[in-house]
Specification:
By secondary structure, this protein is mostly helical. It has one domain (7-52). It has one helix spanning 8-50. The longest helix has 43 residues, at 8-50. It starts with 7 loop residues before the first helix and ends with a helix. The model has no long low-confidence stretch (mean pLDDT 93).
Length: 52
């Protein structure tokens, strides 16, 4: 089994960081979706005020 010269601690830290990056990417997707939804909602609200 070739560990690439990394210790078990290094491999564990690498795995932990990979999981954290994956979780952060998912959180970013959610925040982007929320931002777009709010932007669209705000645009609709502005249009409705213009139509008055």
């Amino acid at each position: 089994d070739d560990d690439g010269g990394f210790s078990a601690q290094d491999r564990a830290e690498n795995l932990r960081l990979r999981v954290e990056v994956t979780e952060l990417k998912e959180r970013i997707k959610v925040l982007e979706r929320i931002a777009v939804e709010k932007e669209n909602s705000l645009a609709k609200e502005i249009e409705s005020l213009r139509d008055r």
